[in-house]
Each structure stands twice: as structure tokens, then as C-alpha cells.
TrEMBL record:
One of its GO terms (biological process) is organic acid phosphorylation. GO terms for molecular function: glycerate kinase activity. The lineage of its organism: Bacteria, Pseudomonadati, Pseudomonadota, Gammaproteobacteria, Alteromonadales. Pfam families: Gly_kinase (PF02595). It comes from Ferrimonas lipolytica. This is Glycerate kinase. Belongs to the glycerate kinase type-1 family. InterPro entries: Glyc_kinase_flavodox-like_fold, Glycerate_kinase, Glycerate_kinase_RE-like, Glycerate_kinase_sf. Transmembrane segments: none annotated. It comes from the Bacteria. The keyword Acetylation does not apply. Keywords: Kinase, Transferase.
Length: 382
């Protein structure tokens, strides 16, 4: 019996690897002869890089990079186990958590540090770059990032435009002659789970600007600046980013990744599941177990258990999910590939107690799942 175990993290309780380890222990307690393949997974959100490092035997590399306000900051990226794939999370150098609430102003914050991380990753001789968006403090369309990679963004007088989202309004010409040539030699994929356009009522500034410190007046200024930025890109690079779904992700970084990195925007869960080569392990599997902290109707929108289930169903495999809790509306997930769902929290309790007992409760639930599974197999064959 080969069982593939591919859970996400259980937020604030267990990392994806820790969850996979406990599920494995529970399986083996009930079925010692089972062959268990642990593949910690993620959906592109918080903890994705750690999960990929754990799943592939990779490592972190730390550098000094600019934070959103241009201050030196220790930031890291990951080199995965193949030695040729790097993972950069935008939030590491350009994250909102790096800026105190009273200092948050997307007119000024800049993504330069993300470009520095990408450059450091290129120095490792990679052939694939996975870029995670989200959690950014910036609204500069990736302008800071591309400047760190050697591009020139110039005003009408031929001077470099300043940093920040507001400065995009002064852009007159884009000079990519000095951009790092190694970018053309690698595959760049961006984990992007939003389809917001660059501008307008559902664009980067209107939807994400306020959480980064933008007032209503700032939102209008930023939206106008991004629209100008988009027009410059279309006129000079012949790339339409204004109408591209996902271009508004992370303060317009989606647009910058498309225009300057020639990147492909992909759902985060698909990017991760490809990176851990899930399909190759499913081909001869008998059962798949996945899970995360909570399952509800929103899980269909790019969450790990549904992503895993979709892949498993391509191989006609049964899929069981274990979660910390199941909301009542989670029953709809049975229509999206989950054949059975189990909650592992045994009784009403505080979240502090949930965290303390998370490992043991997950292990015990996995044991019970396998006992039921084994019983079902016997009944079926008899």
C-alpha cells in the first residue's frame, strides 16, 4: 500500500512538514507495512518557501537587501534541493511587516530589495526562479525591483525617477539595455492567486492600497501613476499589462513581472505542486491524504487540499483530508475531489490547547482514518 501524504501547514500549530510527519506516524501505527511518501505542500501563501525547502532538501541563503523604505535589512531566499531552482518571496525584502504602521506610505515605499534578492539568486547559477507575491508594502508596479536588476526608468529630462508609487507618474522612457541578461536564460514563474487588473476600481491601488497606508486621495494618485506606468510599458515594450488579469497583484508587481521578467503568472498551489513533483508520486499510489488547519467552502479557491485532490483525481485516486476544523459549508468540497474529511480537534477547547495538542491529535486522527480505510478494503474485497 503506497500512501502519498501532502498536507499544507496547520496555521500557528504545525508546519507542513510537521503535519506530514504526524500523519505518517499515524498511518504506520495502524498499517506498519504501508509505504508512505511525505510531500509537504503549500498554496503560495505564508510558509510556502519553508515548505519547498523541506520537501526538496533545499537551504536558505541570507543577504542584506533594502527594505521598502530603502533601509538595510536581512532577507533570505531559498535554493531548492536540485540546486537550480530558487524561491524568492517578495515579502522578505518588500513586506508590509517591515514598515511600522505610522511609516506606511505606498507613495514612497519601493520594491528595490526584491530585485536584490532576485539578483542574488541569479548569482547561484539557477535555471528556474519561483517568485511569490503577497504581503507587500509597495505600490510601485515592480519599478524598484527592475531598477535593482539594471533597468533605467527615466523622466523627461533623462534623470532616474525616484522611488515609490507616486514617482511612476514622472516616467517618460524605459531603458532595458542594462538589465541583467541572465533573466533571459531562466524560466520565471510567479505565484499569483488574484486576478485584479493593474488599475481601476478593482486594481492594485483601490483594493490593496488602503492596507498599505494609502488614504483615499493617495489611492487616486497611485492609480493614476500606475495607469501612466502601464501606458508607458505598452507604448515602449508593446506589452499590455493594464488589462492583464493578475497585473494588480502586490501593488502592481504582477505587471512588473510580466513586463520586465517575462514571467508566467500561475496559481500558487499549482506552482508548488509542480515544484515538489507531486504527479510523479501519484502515478503508482493507492491513497492520498491531504489537509490543513481549516476546511470550508473558500478552500476551493486555490487552497492546497483542493489542488492536491485535483491532481489525484487525474490518476483516479481516493483522497482523504484531515483538518483542524471543518466548517459546515465544507461539505461542498466533496464535489471538488475530497472523498472524505475528518476534523482532528476532539472537543471544544481554546486555541492555545488546540496548538498544544495539535501533533498528537493529528497523529491519532490519521491512525483512525487508516483503520477505517483498511476495514473498507476488507469489506469491499469480501
Amino acid at each position: 500500500m503506497k500512501i502519498v501524504v501532502a498536507p499544507d501547514s496547520f496555521k500557528e500549530s504545525l508546519t507542513a512538514m510537521e503535519a506530514a510527519t504526524q500523519i505518517e506516524a499515524g498511518i504506520l501505527a495502524a498499517m506498519p507495512t504501508a509505504k508512505v511518501v511525505k510531500l509537504p505542500a503549500a498554496d503560495g501563501g505564508e510558509g510556502t518557501t519553508q515548505t519547498l525547502v523541506d520537501a526538496t532538501g533545499g537551504r536558505f541563503i541570507e543577504i542584506t537587501a533594502c527594505d521598502p523604505l530603502g533601509r538595510p535589512n536581512q532577507a533570505k531566499f531559498a535554493l531548492l534541493g536540485d540546486g537550480k531552482t530558487a524561491v524568492v518571496e517578495m515579502a522578505e525584502a518588500s513586506g508590509l511587516h517591515l514598515v511600522a504602521p505610522e511609516q506606511r506610505n505606498p507613495l514612497n515605499t519601493c520594491s528595490f530589495g526584491t530585485g536584490e534578492l532576485i539578483k542574488a539568486a541569479l548569482d547561484c547559477g539557477i535555471d528556474t526562479l519561483l517568485l511569490g507575491l503577497g504581503g507587500s508594502a509597495t505600490n510601485d508596479g515592480g519599478a524598484g525591483m527592475v531598477k535593482a536588476l539594471g533597468a533605467k526608468l527615466l523622466d523627461a529630462d533623462g534623470n532616474h525617477i525616484s522611488s515609490g508609487g507616486a514617482a511612476l507618474a514622472a516616467l517618460s522612457s524605459i531603458d532595458l539595455s542594462g538589465i541583467d541578461k541572465r533573466l533571459q536564460q531562466i524560466d520565471i514563474q510567479v505565484a499569483c492567486d488574484v486576478d485584479n487588473p493593474l488599475c481601476g476600481a478593482t486594481g492594485a491601488s483601490a483594493i490593496f492600497g488602503p492596507q498599505k497606508g494609502a488614504t483615499e486621495a493617495m489611492v487616486q494618485q497611485l492609480d493614476s501613476a500606475l495607469a501612466h506606468f502601464g501606458r508607458c510599458i505598452e507604448q515602449q515594450l508593446n506589452i499590455d499589462v493594464i488589462n492583464n488579469a493578475g497585473a494588480g497583484a502586490a501593488g502592481g508587481m504582477g505587471a512588473g513581472a510580466i513586463a520586465f521578467l517575462k514571467a508566467t503568472l500561475r496559481p500558487g498551489v499549482d506552482l508548488v505542486l509542480d515544484a515538489i513533483a507531486l504527479d510523479s508520486y501519484l502515478a503508482d499510489a493507492d491513497l492520498v491524504i491531504t489537509g490543513e488547519g481549516r476546511l470550508d467552502a473558500q478552500s476551493v479557491h486555490g487552497k492546497t487540499p483542493i489542488g492536491v485532490a485535483k491532481r489525484a483525481k487525474q490518476f483516479n485516486l481516493p483522497v482523504i483530508a484531515i483538518a483542524g476544523s471543518l466548517k459546515e459549508d465544507a461539505k461542498v468540497l466533496s464535489e471538488h475531489g475530497l472523498d472524505a474529511m475528518f476534523a482532528c480537534v476532539p472537543a471544544p477547547m481554546s486555541f492555545e490547547l488546540v496548538k498544544l495538542g495539535a501533533a498528537e491529535n493529528l497523529k491519532q486522527t490519521a491512525t483512525n482514518v487508516i483503520r477505517v480505510w483498511s476495514l473498507a478494503q476488507k469489506l469491499e474485497f469480501n
